Amino acid sequence: MEKKDIIILVLAFVLAGFSLYRKYIKKKEGSAGSSPRKKQVGSSLKDQADDYEPYSGSKS
Question: What is the dihedral of CA 2, 5, 10, 15, to 10 degrees?
Fold first, then answer.
């Protein structure tokens, strides 16, 4: 194989890999938006407002 053939082969593999990567990302974004699990994340404790004021002087 000549140097030119190797460069063309490597370029073809890189382009094929990039194409597959874009398809994977697009598929992942599409499936994440319709997942019912994503809606459950909003009800976790870390997403709730924190009304604790340590130096307010009032006791709850």
Answer: 170
Residue tagged 């598929």 (tokens) = 27
List per-residue pLDDT tens for the chain, 60 residues long.
899 999 999 999 999 999 999 999 999 888 876 555 544 555 677 777 777 777 867 665
The Cα–Cα gap between 51 and 25 comes to: 38
Q: What are phi and psi of 17, to 5 degrees?
A: -65, -40
**CA 29 centroid distance within chain:** 8
pTM, whole model, 2 decimals? 0.47
Tell me the domain boundaries of the chain.
Answer: 1-31
